[in-house]
Structures are given as C-alpha cells and as structure tokens.
Amino acid sequence: MSDIFFLVLRRLRAPLILLVTVYAIATLGMTLIPGVTPDGEPYRMNFFHAFYFVSFMGTTIGFGEIPYPFTDAQRAWVTVFIYLSVISWLYAIGTLLSLLQDTTFRHAIAQRTFRLSINRIDRPFYIICGYGETGMLVNRGLTSLGLQTVIIDYNPERTSSLELENLPVMPITLNADTTEPQNLVAAGINHPRCCGVLALTEKDHTNLQIAVSAKLMSNRVPVICRSEIEDEAENMASFGTNHIINPYRTFARRLSLLVHKPALHKVHNWFLNQHSREHQSERELPKGRWIICGYGRLGRAIHEQLGRDGIEMVLVDPNPDKHDASEPIIEGRGTEADTLQEAGISEASVIIASSKDDANNLSILITARQLNPDIYTIGRVSKEANQPLFVRTGCDYIMRRSQVVANESLTIISRPLVSRFLRLSNSISTEETEHLIERIENLTRHHSPITTRVTLNRDDAPALSRHLHLGGSLTVGQVSQHPFFPRGDGIVLLIQRGNDSTLLPDDDTHLEEHDDVLFCGKRNKLLLVQHLRDNHELVDSLINQNPHQIPLLRWWRRRHNALADGISD
Amino acid sequence: MNFEKVVFAFFIILALSLNFGFFIGDMENPAHHDPHELFAALVVSLICTILKFGDRTHFGSTVLATSLVALLQLIAAAIVWYFASRSGAGVDAAEMARITSMAGGALVANLLSVILLVIETSQIRK
C-alpha cells in the first residue's frame, strides 16, 4: 500500500506545490486589498473569508462576490487568479491521470493486488511456472479439481488468454521472470497452503533454476519438473527434485507397454488421461518392423526403449553423421518415397514420425500411408493447433508432448493412489487385466471411467468411519454396488492400508478404518460410496439392514448411542 | 551544487525562521504577532511537507513526520485565531497566549527538522 501511496505523492509533488502557491498568493492578496462595505466604510477580508472565497473561485466561478460587492482592484486580482488556479488544477488533474496510465504505476498496482490475493488464499494451491501449452493443460486439470493455481509467466499475452477460459477457479497470475527466486516467494512458496511447484517452461535450464530455487526456499514443498535433456534431469535429481517428467521417455515407455501388454496400456490410458484423452485408434498394434523417422530426442528415447524389448527398427534421419547410433541410419527426412522405400516401407508394420517439424511429420505419415495402406502410424505433434491435421490424416496414435507432461504431472499431484495403482499394475496378469477392462467397459458402456478416492476417516467419510469405529463390518462389495443406486456402481481398484496395497480386492474383502480406497466409476455420476460416506441413515439401512425405523427415532437412537460411547458427531 | 537540494533546504529553513518570527515577542500581546506571518509560516510549512513526500529513506520519513507535526500545530493556531477574532473586537490576551504557544510547539518541530537536515548534510563525505 505504502509503495503506491508514496509513488502517487512523489509524482504529484510539483502540481501540489503549484496549487499551494497559487492559493496562498491569492488568499494573501484578498486580505491585503482594501474593500468597501455598502455603507462606504473601508473593509478588509480576514484570512478565513479570503480562503473561503479563493477556494470556490478556483473550482466553481460564480458564487458571487461576498460578503460585499468587490472594488475594481479586488476584481482585477480575482481575474488573474481565476486563470492561474484553473491552470494549476488542470495541471494537477492531468498529472494524476497520466500517472494512472503509467506502466510503473500499473506495475505497482498489479504487484499489490497479486500480493494481496496470495495472502488471501485459504485453500491448497499449486504454483505453475510457465504458461505454455503444457501449463495450460495442467492448469485446466487442477482448476477442474477445484484447486487454486498461481501462474508465473514472463509473457503477459499468454496469461491474458486465461480470462477467456471458463475456469471454475480463477488462477492468480504474475507476469514476471520465473527464474528469479523473489518471484517464487511472492507467489507464495512459503505459504502454509502451498502444495507444490510445477516447473513447466520449455527450457530445461529454466526448469532447473526454478527447481533449485524452490528447493532452497522451501524444502517442504514438492517440486515437479519437466525435462527433456538427460544431463539436466540428472542435475535436477541430484538435489532432490521430487518428480522429473521427460515426455519422450514417458511416451517411449507407453509405447513399450503398448507392444507388450496392450490391455494394460488401455487401462493406463484411461486412468492417466482423465483430463484430456489421447488420440488413439481402435486398431491393434501389428507385430513386425518399425521405421523411426527423425532420430532426435523422441526418436532416440523410443529406439532405446524398444531396442531393449528386441524390436527390429530402421532409423531415418536427415543428418545421420551427427548421431552416434549403434545402427546405420538412412539419410533423408522420410518425406520422400525413395527414402521410405529404402527403409523398407512395404514390409514394415509401424512408422513413427518423430521429427520436430509438424509439416514434415504430416508429409511422412501421408507418404507412408500411400506406399503401405496397412501401416500403423504414430505421429508427434509439436504445436497443439496442428493436432486436427494429424487426426485428419488418419494417424493411429498421436503423441502430444504437452499432453504427456500434463497428464503425468496431474496424476502425480492429484491422484497419488492412481499413480500407485499404475505402478503396481505391471504385476497383474493379462487375463486379469482383460477381465478388469471387461468389467469397466460393462460399467461405463465404453466410455472412459474416472477415479475417486475415499479415505475411511472422520473427515472424508464420517458415516462409514463411525460405522467401522463402532465395530461394524464393511466389505468391498457393500460399498461398490447396491440395487438402490444402479448408476452408482463402482469398482474398487486399490486398498491402501498403511504401507500395504491390495490391488483389485474381491467383494468379500473387509475394509478397516483409515483405509484409503480407490474407486473407478462412470463419469459425472455419484458413486454409491459417495452417497454413503456422510449419510448415517443410508449406512444404517443399506449396511446395517435397519430399514424399518422412523428416521427421527433412528436419529435419536444414534445420538443416544453416540453420547453413551462418548463420541460426538 | 544541486538546485533541488537548495530549494529543499531553503524551504525547511524558511519555515523555521518564519515560525520563529511569529513566535518571538510578548506571548499575550497581539501587537507582537502578525497574522500574515502566521499565514506565511503555514503556507511554507505546507510546501515543505509536499517537498518531503515520497522519500522512503529513514531520514526522509522522520523529516516528513516533523513537518506534519509543525503543520498540524500551525493549522490549529490559525483555527483558534479565526474563532478568537470572530467577535470583531480583536484577539484578547488569553487567546493570543494560546495561539503563540501552539506556534511555539510548531517551532520545536521545525527546529528538529533543521537539525536533522544539518546532521544529514554533515554525514555526506567530502
């Protein structure tokens, strides 16, 4: 506050001094110039009357000459000072208006409002550094979960688009250099409600700087970093960055999963991409030789990952000499038919267009389809805006860098149980996975499911935890479906009890107090457990099978029991 | 030589000397205290206060505070004068003493302001 106040005062110094001087001289003159009363007596104004007259003379000419009509000398003096006072007022008001337009002043105001809104945050929030395509997706995901976000980006043009988005929670934005530690502090990294910092800028080094300063400023706050270069990633890991997301490696791992366990890949896809779905066709991935066009970071990551899996690959790159690949690289961009034929397009089963250039990638995919109509195509999109073009070419699997990072970080942040489930899901057998897919598809009728986490404690599920606390029993089957709520059917994916996780428990498994349970169910439908968790009546009638009591009596009895147990609701 | 500093020092010292000029004389004798001098002291004090706006150093804030004190006392004195002279019979001895003592209070504040200015100046290395 004082910053702005003093800035205004400093800028207004000159006009204010001019105003005071003009008023002082005019007032003094009015007291010195002799006047005459209507009776012809000589008369002099005192300071009070003079000041009163001068005050309205400057602003509203036309109150009349008081207390008595003026002499000519007085009128001459007033005439001069009418002009002088109007000019000095105009000067003062003009300066004030130009100050309001001033960038320094606006900056000071913006910083003040930012600081105030950070101080006023009363719920958990995340700091997003860098509002590009990735930042936008992450922000959308976080706000749709009702979380507050604070966005720092250097470019005001990027953050101004936020106002056009219809977000359930309006993010707080700061246009400042993300690498400066003071901006992280201003964004509230030391705020007790700060839950994490996401470094999502395009430059690895910037993300590294953000991670270092975030870790030094506040060791408590977890940091999630996007990184595309190995060296920087190792550097980040060395000082305890909590999660490092490399979109290329992540995507390569997903491809490897698609090759080995397509069913599990589908499950991963559902649970990982709950905010924005990946584009993937229904076709199955054929077995056979792969062609990788573009041996850049993505190409290398895929080559490395799939090489371990023993898949035969042909590499195509315009500058083969620059790379030290273990296998020979065919020279060419892959956009021409010759190069693709040299790579053996007619016998290949999968082609990946993994170069940086969207136009080249599109051209590769179209040419490949012409030469081999059955080929499975995987394309990399660099600019989000080009994604519809890739869909139009009939690309089977589209890799969007920003989406990979966004979905990965959203899962880490907002759904720790889901990421645990995905980590453990490698141990599930193929039959079990297929059975799970069948169950989920029957449940959601081929739409993608969403996950819900319920913790059986007093805050999250008071009714259920009370039931358990009083010694009642509760099984997985009882909370996952009931004929009363046909749309609330859910599947229990994971029970987390202390450090033990139970994957896909069967219906007879007993739940205990303080269990963390991960459900999956239909999108936009309340699950049975969500009805049950704070509804004591419902728990009584569905689980305790006491449906015939009058509700009021039941309430009174429960209250009575609670008092007897010494537990208050 | 910095013109801005000259103006700044000029107004601070002028405020003190005008204030002193008004204050000096018999406390209760209206003939010893000229209303125009009080007016001048008031206006110069006002200009001094405006000149001190926006200096965020420690020195700046203290000097601004002394100036505000002087201004308040002088405004109070002027208001008392107005009410005392409303009857038209002129200011009596008791009222005059009240006005003068207020101006005396302002004088102390102005004096402090000048002392601060001198200290500040003496700290500048040659």
Explain what you see.
The complex is a heterodimer of chains A (569) and B (126). Chain A is an alpha/beta fold. Chain A folds into 4 domains: 2-101, Helix Hairpins (Orthogonal Bundle), CATH 1.10.287.70; 122-245, Rossmann fold, CATH 3.40.50; 248-414, 3-Layer(aba) Sandwich (Rossmann fold), CATH 3.40.50; 445-565, 2-Layer Sandwich (Alpha-Beta Plaits), CATH 3.30.70.1450. In chain A, the strands form 4 sheets. Chain A has a 6-stranded parallel β-sheet, sandwiched between helices. Chain A has a 6-stranded parallel β-sheet with strand order 11-10-9-12-13-14, sandwiched between helices. Chain A has a 4-stranded antiparallel β-sheet with strand order 15-18-16-17. The mean pLDDT of chain A is 84. By secondary structure, chain B is an all-alpha fold. Chain B is built from 4 helices and no strands. Chain B is elongated, with a radius of gyration of 16 Å. The two termini of chain B are 13 Å apart. The model of chain B has no long low-confidence stretch (mean pLDDT 88). The chains are: A alpha/beta (569), B mainly alpha (126).
List keywords for this structure.
heterodimer; A: 569 residues; Helix Hairpins; Rossmann fold; 4 domains; six-stranded parallel β-sheet; 24 helices; 18 strands; B: mainly alpha; 4 helices; 77% helix; elongated
The tally of structural domains of chain B comes to: 1
CA-atom Rg of chain B in angstroms: 16 Å
CATH topology of the largest domain in chain A: Rossmann fold
Query: How many helical elements of chain B?
Result: 4
Topology:
The complex is a heterodimer of chains A (about 575) and B (about 130).
Chain A lengths: L1 H10 L1 H20 L2 E2 L5 E2 L3 H13 L12 H30 L1 H18 L4 E5 L3 H12 L3 E5 L3 H5 L11 E3 L6 H6 L7 E6 L4 H14 L5 E4 L3 H9 L4 E3 L1 H14 L1 H11 L16 E5 L3 H12 L4 E5 L11 E3 L5 H6 L5 E6 L4 H14 L4 E6 L5 H6 L4 E4 H14 L1 H9 L5 H15 L5 E6 L6 H8 L6 H5 L10 E7 L2 E4 L12 E6 L6 H5 L3 H8 L7 H15 L4
Parallel strand pairs in A: 3-4, 3-6, 4-5, 6-7, 7-8, 9-10, 9-12, 10-11, 12-13, 13-14
Antiparallel strand pairs in A: 1-2, 15-18, 16-17, 16-18
Chain B lengths: L2 H21 L11 H18 L5 H27 L8 H31 L3
Helix pairs in contact in B: 1-2, 1-4, 2-3, 3-4
